[in-house]
Amino acid sequence: MPGYGQQICPLIRFGGVGHRWFDGSSLTRAALRGGEFAAAKTAQARVRRASEILAAHERVLMYCYWNELDKAGHRHGSASLEWGEQLEELDAAMRTLAARLPAGTLLLLTADHGMVDVPERHRIDYSLTPELVDGVALTAGEPRCVQLHVEPGLSAGGRERLVGAWRAALGPRAWILERHEAVAHGFFGDVDADVLPRIGDLLVLPSVPELALYDGRRVAPRAFEMVGQHGSVTRAERVVPLLTLARTG
């Protein structure tokens, strides 16, 4: 951000520099509203566009997004050659961008999550086990953060049987939490009463990297092909470094 130590001229905010696929998407609008979006397809094009914007404005807050590394991790795994190649591409792009920064610029690099690789034999369709969906009206979440919404009026005994079935099936390989427990532990931060029902009545969070849980009735078969996964609260998935790559001037 050029001029991070100055308070004289107004701040120009660019909502993001990234692939045109993300221009105007719901997530982009929700997270980066109020800023402009500069579309650039390749890593080199993104560096060039970011450099142009930085050079044209005295004070800018800019968010640049590289999706290729995450995509390679999901498709091939974070231990794959493809992931390593994309990491090298990102590293080269950041070196180029850092070299082009105007004076008074701070360049930070981080990610929104970590990733674990789940072997195919550990990608489980839990809908094939009747007791794991007995009393469940709706399944939500993702393979490493399953959220189960129980049927309205499910008795306390029915809920207890459901929790017991999941704990018996997974044992120490997953944390099984009821909604009030997850909220009390601060998993979702401060939760407004209007938002509370959106959280599952029961949450299933794998505690080991080698486990992904799918509702095969709800997801497409290709979902089971995903190698790199995230969503649980293991250290590998939630602890992400914030790196200072450059601080000029």
Explain how this protein is built.
The chain is an alpha/beta fold and 249 residues long. 30% of the residues lie in helices and 23% in strands. The protein contains seven helices and 13 strands. The protein has helices spanning 26-32, 43-56, 68-76, 81-100, 156-170, 179-184, 235-238; strands spanning 12-18, 36-39, 60-64, 106-109, 116-117, 123-125, 136-142, 145-150, 174-178, 202-206, 212-214, 228-229, 243-247. It has a four-stranded antiparallel beta sheet with strand order 7-8-10-9. Strands 2-1-3 form a three-stranded parallel beta sheet, sandwiched between helices. Strands 4-13 form a two-stranded antiparallel ribbon. Strand 1 (12-18), helix 1 and strand 2 form a beta-alpha-beta unit. Helix 2 packs parallel to helix 4 and helix 3 runs antiparallel to helix 4. The longest helix is centred in the middle third of the chain and has 20 residues, at 81-100.
